[in-house]
Amino acid sequence: MQISQEIISNLKKGGADFFLSVPCKLLANMITILEDDKDVYYSAIPREEEGMGICAGAYLGNKLPCIMMQNTGIGNSVNSIVSLLQLYQIPVVFLISYRGTSGEPVGAQAGMASITEEILDTLRIPMLHCSTERDLEKISTFTNHAKVVEGPVAILCNFNLMNKD
Amino acid sequence: MNRFELIGLLQETLQDNLVVCNIGLPSQELYKINDRPNYFYMLGSMGLSSSIGLGLSLSIDKNVISIDGDGSVLMNMNTLATIGNRAPSNYTLLIVDNGSYGSTGDQKTFTNEKTSLKDVAIGAGCEKVIECSGEETLENLNKALADKVHSYVIISKIKSGNVPIKPIPLNPITIRDRFRKSIGLVSYL
Prior knowledge:
The complex is a heterodimer.
Chain A: H1 2-13, E1 18-21, H2 28-35, E2 41-44, H3 48-60, E3 65-70, H4 72-75, H5 78-86, E4 92-98, H6 110-122, E5 127-130, H7 139-149, E6 152-158, H8 159-163
Parallel strand pairs in A: 1-2, 1-3, 3-4, 4-6, 5-6
Chain B: H1 3-9, H2 11-14, E1 18-21, H3 25-34, E2 39-41, H4 49-57, E3 64-69, H5 70-75, H6 78-86, E4 91-97, E5 100-101, E6 107-108, H7 117-124, E7 128-133, H8 137-146, E8 152-157, H9 172-183
Parallel strand pairs in B: 1-2, 1-3, 3-4, 4-8, 7-8
Antiparallel strand pairs in B: 5-6
């Protein structure tokens, strides 16, 4: 719970004030924290692509949105990232549980894991890798980076880091 | 009544509200009829007009109208569940249901066959769902905007068909910034 708490605190410190999630067991603690947080908007949603649209609208209404999802969600969202978020230069923070990284018990997650960073690279989306607790303090500055670059940025939280929380 | 006529008919209400408009011909027609800074024209991401408007309505107190099409709603139908469970009272989804993918050459959609977006919206949890003719749409839209308790989904059943029209010449950042300025969020323009 401590790692999830630190991630949420740093996202909020960086300015994020509107949160959506598509569930992952590695995000479960963060979802629990956000459900009880009265300072920010939070909702679960059924699909990531839809979330890109909701985030875009929230930004138009002066929020800094954060969508929490598995890395598989990037695959569901490529067109909306390029032809909505990047086309209109809309800041959104992707908080990604990086399934398929070391420690992952489900072999089927390996496929998307093996191409996740290539996809993000191809999309020219800045990445922050979090593999140890020391990395978490970088999240607040990186959250604000979305506003600076006026586009999506991605925080990748490795399996082992989140699984021990 | 076709979409061009419907969008024209709705101007007296749309022009004073924040509108998110579907990609392709709906936005191009809206632009041609009455370009306004408080109209957010989609230039990509088909299917997300409903979701963009929802995110905006959750972030500000003003009324927000998403203009969407039957084909686009069919592409992003899960968002009706999000709307049914989360949409605030300042949100209205106006689905212009002409039974066809107008922007791609008027291919028929499933609303021409067995699919009822009214039934889908009700099943998804939307409480106020109105299906009406094009002529009845303005009255229902005004009713939706005046209701401070419920969000609405209005399905306007009209004829398919398009008018000759050009792409929107505006740059996406121009659309973004003048829209945000109309909400009072941009001071540098």
